[in-house]
Amino acid sequence: MNPRSRVTVVVVLLVWCLVVAAFMLLNRALDLEVFFVLVLIGMLVLVELADTATVQPGHLRRVKYVVAAGVLVFGWIVASKVMEILAR
Amino acid sequence: MTPSDWWPRLADRLAALRGTAASLRRDRLAAYALVPLVLALLLVFAGQALLYDAADAARTPYHEDVRVTGGLSREDGALVLPEWASSLNATGPVTLDIKLGDLDAAAASLEAYLRSGRSLSGLVFRLDASETDVGEYNGLNSRNMQSLLQLLNQTEEFDRLETLEVQYRDAGDAANLRAVQLRGEELRAALLANYAGYAGRRDDVVNLSERYDLDTAAYEQSVLDFQAIVEALTGRQEARAAALPAEIREIQDAARAVGGLPPITFEVVPARGGYGDVLEMRGTVSAPAGTGVTIFADGRLLAGVVSGADGRFRFPYRVERIEAGRHAAYASAGAAISEDAAFTIDERNTTLDLAVSLENEGWLVVPNWTAYCTGVLETEDGVPVRDVPVEVDVEEWWWNDGTTGEDGAYRVNATNLEPGRQNLTAWFYPDEEPLNWTVSAPVELEVPSLAGALAPLLYLAGLGLAGLGAVLYLRRRRAGEAVPARARAPPPEPVVELPPAPTPEEAAAAADLLGAGVDGRETITRLYRRLARELDSRHPREFLQSFTPRELAARFAAAPWSAELAALVAVHERVRYAGRAPTEEDIHLARETFIRVISESEGRADG
I need a surface site. Which of B256, B466, B541, B551 has the fewest CB within 10 A? Predict the structure, then answer.
């Protein structure tokens, strides 16, 4: 991945975060869990698109660790939501 | 600048653009594709109602601002407005029937009105619209229903008093005639207060209803009819108040003539008290011992006592079911009626405590969690409040009622509690007692649930699955790389010597030697490498071994065997760089093309 592509990925991720936050604010429904999940989805898509078949730059590997940690938090959120539904 | 100058510049620019397009990678193209996606999302969300604040936002099908409509959405309005209109129209017949004196028809009209009101309340609850205009109207309408119900009862009570008046007049019962007069006065005061409340809500109801273009004519007429009823009943009571003292005097004069009007005195000591106090109602009657004395309070029979040897009588009155405020009592012995004795009842504050124990009255799978609520209701000075209802609410919803005992203690069971955290409170609303309402401190309960018991497992499963997903995500790539050829170091490549111009048979023997004992991937790799070395040796000083496979294929594009070389390069790229597993066909193709190129290429003659 050349430096320009790396910048593109960061910019697109930032734009995605801003779009999500803007619509949440407009909808008066700022939910940190939903925001986190949407940003995680954005990161997953971008990492998948930026990833190459034969080589893996160091920064991409580190981003994948962040994504993996995000998946763990996502698991916790899903369990919490299931608990909320069961508690009704 | 002439057109002949423009053309090369344009050609250069186009070439630069082509170069840019060619250098665009797939991931960047995908990133650019996100831009229309974001725009599409914008378009989708742009239709959402809550994005708009304008006062006329609800004018178009796609723009609806529930704040403009007082929280009433279009769907809710379609359900609620017919019931709203129906409840407004139902008020008119009730007051009209009462005004015309047809109380049976009024009762039927009132029942229809109450039905409509209950239906509206049900909708408000179902739509969770208590904070909207509908919720506000529903509150006003509930109080109007209560007013009209009271009006009907008060009108019936007036009629009943008229019947009693005739009955007591015929019987010459002066004491009860006095009671009728007092009760009539009390009823008139209550009727005026009821009318003040009903008329006071008129503007609010009309303004709220007109906001939704609802016709309020029937409701406004009902206010006028209510006023007419009040005027008529007040007139009847004034006539009664003017006539009854004279009638009572007539009865007493007749009794005096036959010596049946003994002097009677009456007092209440102390003249002020509160809930639980005992007021002594006492007096004297100049009549033989054992004379019956009847005591009335606010026109209602309170007690019957007999006089003693000295003509004294007394009745200890415990203050319980009597409203706070000033009251009048009198005693009577036959036609003799004492002067009124006034006494005042003070309102007292109450305290209510609540203790809860939770037990499961059902099964593990089908539980019935029951909260046993106990406590004591007392006045602020410690007097137990007895025989009054206490209500237990769960999360501010009524759940069950109980009644206090002699010591003010109550016990209420709240059954079938929902799982989860629940707040329980006990409430006391006085009915006729001179007490203030009170509520206990909330008691928080954690009602167990099957889901609650499973929570740790669920969280563990969620985190476990997520962890597994995370590990698989991180290892996915490594698994792809872990092809057998990489995992095990291949055996060293044999040194295969070839004559300057090998025959196909010699080339085939070399290919067999290269592929002996290794898998397809290594065979293809060795065939390509050996071929590259052979070509390099036949074309000295071109350093062909430093060429990439594609550069090598391009170098010999003019050779007669270029197609075979290109095919071998393609197979080699797929297997070596794209990580694809070689097929039998790939291995065969690589071997055949190797033989052909090795046996047919002839050094410089190739190109």
Answer: B541
Q: Please give the Cα distance from B440 to B376 (Å, whole number).
A: 10
Burial class (CB in 10 A: 0-12, 13-18, 19+), B344: middle
Residue B284: what residue type? T
| C-alpha to C-alpha distance for B80 and A4, rounded to whole angstroms | 59
What CA–CA distance (Å, rounded) separates B221 from A39? 61
| Span B422-433, pLDDT tens digits | 899 999 999 889
Cβ distance B31 to A49 less than 8 Å, yes or no, reads yes
Tens of pLDDT, residue by residue over B247-294, are 888 888 888 888 778 889 999 999 999 999 999 999 999 888 888 999
- Residue B437: strand, helix, or coil: coil
Helices B26-46 and A3-26, packing angle to 10 deg? 10
pTM of the predicted protein model: 0.54
Please report residues of B whose CB lies closer than 8 A to that of A37.
Answer: none
| Mean of all residue pLDDT scores within chain B | 84
pLDDT at position B68, please?
Answer: 52
Q: Cβ contacts (< 8 Å) between A36 and chain B: which residues?
A: none
- Contact between chains at B470 and A71 (C-beta distance less than 8 A): yes
What residues in B contact A26, CB-CB < 8 Å? Answer: 45, 50-51
pLDDT at B54: 40
Residue A79 at interface with chain B, using a CB cutoff of 8 Å: yes
Cross-strand partners of B348:
B435
- Compare all CA atoms of chain A with the CA of B34 and give the residue at the minimum distance: A12
Cβ neighbors of B147 (< 8 A, separation 6 or more) are: B194, B197, B198
Q: Closest Cα partner for B147 from B209, B80, B206, B193?
A: B193
Interval A34-84: pLDDT, tens: 899 999 999 999 888 888 777 777 888 888 899 999 999 999 999 888 887
The answer to whether B203 and B219 have CB atoms below 8 angstroms apart is no
Is pLDDT of B607 > 50?
no
Would you call A67 and B31 a contact, using CB atoms and an 8 Å cutoff? no
Residue A32 touches partner B, C-beta closer than 8 Å = no
